[in-house]
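Hi support team,

I'm filing this because I wasn't sure whether my run with L-phospholactate finished correctly. The job status page said complete, but I'd like someone to confirm that the output block is well-formed before I use it downstream. Pasting the exact inputs I used:
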Amino acid sequence: MYFHALIPFKPVNPKTRLSCILDQEEREAFARAMLEDVIAAVQKSGCSATLLCTHPFKHENALIAVRKESLNDAINWALKQFHCPALIIMGDIPLVTAGDIQRLIRTEKDMSIVPGRGGGTNIIFLKKPQCFRADYYGASFLDHMRIAGECNFSVEVIDSFRMSTDIDEKEDLVEILIHGKGRKSREYLENSGFSLAIDEKGRVGVQRDAHKETL
Ligand SMILES: Nc1nc2c(ncn2[C@@H]2O[C@H](COP(=O)(O)OP(=O)(O)OP(=O)(O)O)[C@@H](O)[C@H]2O)c(=O)[nH]1
Ligand SMILES: C[C@H](OP(=O)(O)O)C(=O)O
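And here is everything the job wrote out:
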């Protein structure tokens, strides 16, 4: 099955929750590295990618739409253009694989959805995108389930560690370092001096070697 994937992407000053460990230029490079991982999985799954960008951006393997409005308004504008099923996938879930995406698009329901940790929504697959309305931020998973109900959609909720792992906070980098073999995002972190650190209570975190060069 061949579908179109919509990937919202903010190339300028992204991932501000990582400002404690990455400066703006580094966050922009890291966000691009995560995006590469997501686009690679999307393409391998047989879908084409359109980036819904806040600012001008170029990518050789994706179409670009630049939309200055808010995330929800931009996505809702895009959904109206779809005449076939659509996938909305966030650019900050670098552990996703092509097989994971195929699991979503093979659903027998009207919609499949992957929650993000902490109440968010990481991926939505919609057979009838024109009927739906995106409502990201806050407890968006609950909001999207409610909106699906209003649309009378049957829904499959997909339980997946890799797809539910969105990279928002410093602690989330642990997951890339542990599970991100072969990913551009892991390469970026390693080349930027990040490694795992285990504290005195046995908790796993990340540390940064200040002497390493960033990419
Ligand atoms: N088109 C568009 N994409 C956005 C916008 N805000 C965030 N995104 C993208 O949506 C996805 C999830 O967003 P967030 O997790 O909030 O990322 P972020 O805004 O870069 O991170 P924070 O500054 O830490 O909130 C990422 O792929 C972002 O690049 C926006 O206003 N418009
Ligand atoms: C866009 C937002 O992302 P989060 O801030 O939860 O990563 C959401 O999933 O509603």
